[in-house]
Amino acid sequence: MDEKYFPEKIEEKWQRFWEESGAFEAESDASREKRFYCLEMLPYPSGFLHMGHVRNYSIGDALSWFRRLQGFNVLHPMGWDSFGQPAEQAAIKRGVMPREWTEKNIEHMRGQFKRMGFSFDWRREVTAHTPEYYKWDQWFFLKMLERGLAYKKVSPVNWCPAEGTVLSNEQSSGGVCWRCGAAVEKRDIEQWFLRITDYAEQLLEDMSEIERGWPERVLTMQRNWIGKSSGAYIDFQVRDTDERVRVFTTRVDTIYGANAVVVAPDHPLVEHSPVKDDVRRFAERVRAERAAARDPGAQEEKEGVNTGLLAVNPFSGELIPVWAGNYVLTEYGTGAVMSVPAHDERDFEFAQKYSLPIRRVIERISHEQPPAERDPGVEDQSVAMKEAFTEYGILVNSGDWSGRLSEGAIREMAEFAEARGFGERAVTYRLRDWGVSRQRFWGAPIPIVYCDACGVVPVPESDLPVVLPERAEFTGSGQSPLAGVPEFVNTTCPKCGKPARRETDTMDTFVDSSWYFFRYCDPKNARAPFDREKVAYWTPVDQYIGGVEHAVMHLLYTRFWTKFMRDIGLINFNEPVKRLMTQGMVVAETFYREGEEPGSKVYFNPADVDVVRDDKGRVSSATSTADGQPVTVGPFEKMGKSKNNGVDPNEMITAYGADAARLFVLFAAPVENDLRWQEAGIDGALRFLRRVYSFVHRWRESFGGVTRDAAAAGGFSPEAGRLRHETHRTIERVTNDFEGLRYNTAVAAMMELSNALGDFRVAPGSAAPSDRFAVRETLEALVLMLAPFAPHLSEELWEALGHEGGILRSGARWPAFDEALARKDEVEIAVQVNGKLRGRVSVAAAATEEETRAAALADERVRAWTDGKQMVKTVVVPGRLVNVVVKQ
RNA sequence: GCGGAUGUGGCGGAAUUGGUAGACGCGCUAGCCUCAGGAGCUAGUCUAGGCAACUAGGUGGAGGUUCGAGUCCUCUCAUCCGCACCA
Predict the structure, then answer these.
(1) Is the ipTM of this complex over 0.95?
(2) Start-to-end CA span in chain A (Å)
(3) Distance between CA A234 and CA A338 in Å, rounded?
(4) Which protein residue's Cα is closest to nucleotide B6 at C1'?
(5) Chain B: nucleotides under 7 Å from a protein CB?
(6) Is the pTM of this model over 0.90?
(7) From the Cβ of A845, is strand B under 7 Å away?
(8) Which of these ranges, A28-37, A256-265, A363-372, has the smallest mean pLDDT?
């Protein structure tokens, strides 16, 4: 053992040891019931690990180590979400083939992971872009197709007319093409969809199974995304046509107040309009406005045109106009609404703009509701009402329904409509089917063949995988790259054998990430996506860790995929993840100067800035290291290129070691909070590790031959007793903190223990056997508890303490605490007089209430406040405090 | 606009869930050691007063419940996040 702690030397040594001994390799083993699946979201191989990754995987790695030490069989795998756009961008920009680019990145990042010392079972690595993996994406797609869950429909994409390419939402933000700046258009093309909406109800219902383990806000976001809404469909006959227009409403009770039917601008009913050209022009305009710069947060003004059609209110028989309005969405409900301005804010706004009549049909029933504004005796309330009354109430002016309450009327009016054949109760969802088609090269090809004779033909399972060609033209313009590869496109029909063409769309990368963690359980299986028994052993995932940005899409899709896999008999549970943890961002200070352009900023990397502090430690100013001139101190922001405040994990490892970096990210903040990266903080982590290292170095020689019996025979000195108490109490605290993923307080507890060891002022040379026993007990516990945070150092110290074969193979177990030792035999009791702290007394931990009270009242300082006063009562909280209430 | 969360020293954050506010770390101050280094060690560090023991105040703000409130209740302010014409 070196006298000093040299991280790089130790880290290399143990990384080699782990690799050679297969320390983190796990196998499903029916005889080992205690098993734990610890999963972190797999990264996109952009080429470089960033601090967000370091944090994400440090959290998971710590938990994996903890469970291993507790004797669990732990599955902790890693893989690559390696399909996706950046690879294609690299191909366009630099002419590198996506596969080459991707694999080089993976190579590099895997090396970075290894330098961090994460305890992955690398044999299980899953890589989305390999045919061995995406073959099963295709297989699942075919299974969905068989079950009617995959289908094709026309749907719009962002289209750059200048380049003739399809753009993602991101690439067309602001309504212009990110590359050439041309105005983006919407174009309708046929695309593949998965019927996730068939599972909407289950996706909502099954949330009850995971409520305890998932963050409330993630479930809320998913609930909102699914957007369940119960109401009714009502059909309005359109006069002079055979058409009926169906609307969806949650408030049938307000139907007597309907002044119009408003349909989406591109609603099919428009065909029957006598002024359909006007309506079409309107629809075109709305369309164009939407495609163009849509500022986030900007709400369009409500606009509409009268279609000239008239519809019959099936309840009242009243004739009302049909309008087309920009505020009615084609995609939601039926694309048509009944407009009830008196009781809906949007309809109110619309009616005001076009001077449509407003009729109040719901009155308040409680004084807590806003007072009724109305002109008695006048039907049209346009003048009286200042805003819509959207609450439930009592029905008025509603024919036979008048006098009923909203709640009952909503139900019964829907039933009435159903009985009369002009409507039904209905539930709608905001959730839409999952569009999986991408007009891209770098994705799993959708296994479909188009044959002139047979139509749409699925590729037979036995012909999978449909392999992505090695090369394609990535000119950045023209057609989808796959369409330009004749060897790929031209094939024969699996049914009739005649020439046919392949589907050139590839799959959304969310498909890959929907089931990858099942593949980890059996990553090399060539006959099936995975072996059911292996998956049954490991899944569902015990703990999943990742960024909150995946709260909706990825996590909803993977829940959907799980339910589908259940339905085809691959697994037998509903929910893939028992516990979910969403970690906060890594943020760092920003420094900048005003740029040449007004409002532009030139950012300085924190490493190139000197910060000046006042004597309270407040940052008062900062200067550039380069020129010594001042720079402006900005707020903490997410690390990244745009703010030039990123920190390279490699540099951190070089300067401080992987262990210190890992310890710091786990200590600096609770895992769900944002983490403020401060270089000084990692210094503190390193200091702590050095301290622990030097304790072991100082004491290890003196531990020989000290047994528990020998130590106990001599009894423990008060100091040694105190140290043992601290040790056992710390084990208790750290163990509990782990269960709640409270790493920051776990580390704090270990630091306290190390401070206690520092206060134990006995020299190793002159220590009694009992002292040496106590110190060894402390150090062994500390080293093992530190393993999840700083595994390399812990391995080194464990070896220095005389254990062979590495921590996991040496049979080491997470330390157990002795309840009796963790408790104190003397406790300090706070004594308050009238709620103010006036003194502290020490009593036996087992002291009765009476004894505690007596001790408190006997205290001199307390008596100074109570003598001569009338005592009203005393409150005693055993083990904590005494409050004496006196009359003033 | 709707929904959710959070406000504690100069900073990140603790506080056994109604019981000693500020653990632990960073930063800062002073001292020691020193080949004077961004190393190590020791002490101090919520605010005000005092040499000190101590006293008073203090958890965004205002009320309230309670022997006792960072924690519970009411109102209010601020910040952050999500959704955004969802009928």
Answers:
(1) no
(2) 66
(3) 9
(4) A673
(5) 3-5, 10-16, 19-21, 23-29, 38-42, 54-57, 67-69, 81-87
(6) yes
(7) no
(8) A363-372
